Fold:
Amino acid sequence: MKKIRTVVIEDEAVTARNLIHLLSEVDADIDVVKTLASVAEAVIWLAANTYDLIFMDIRLADGLSFDIFKQVEVDRPVIFVTAYNDYAITAFKNNGIDYILKPFDETEISNALSKYKTWMVSPNKGQSYSDLVAALGNATKSFKKSFLVHYRDKLIPIETDKISWFYTANEIVYANTIADQQYIIEFTIEQLVQQLDPEKFFRANRQFLINKKSIIEVNFYFNGRLSILIKPQPTDKILISKARVPEFKKWMNS
Structure:
């Protein structure tokens, strides 16, 4: 069988590697020809190359992946892979044939590929747009409500709502509580993004995940960035890049 030339658009390296591994395990016909990490990279590459299928995250480092469709023609099917289900309608209007919520597993990847192959045989007879939206609307996702952390010679539970921010340094992730106590968390920032409620926590940058209710004020910073004043305030400044400012404002206003 002809190889399925597949593009992965995902800005989290760990997630991209996991997805590529699962694809190779599920279907030997999948050939991942390119991995892209941003809207800008995707626009340039997709305009100059051919491919059969795209696995695409929605929130990328420099904006939403929907911006790709505004800048380059995408005429092949897209399977959206994301931690958030609030972009369903837009996703399906942009060549979406399936929508997988993180954290995903082998079964979900396999089912998505089956839908792609059905689409290849009968592009107009696949699952309808309304069916996809209905299926997504019925999808439920539970978020972590607490963490079990090491404290001296014991384990103690910490409620997620009592964590002000998460911070990563030297491949170690710390959780800082509203009471200004700090603990080591046995998850990566990428894993936390998938496990935390996106209505409450926002990926400010590569180092910080912040709790909305702990934000005191937001200040304008150099080059269109924002500086976040949060309680308790970490040693390192929390900055929102210019590209992510619109997304942050939308999150704060939700």
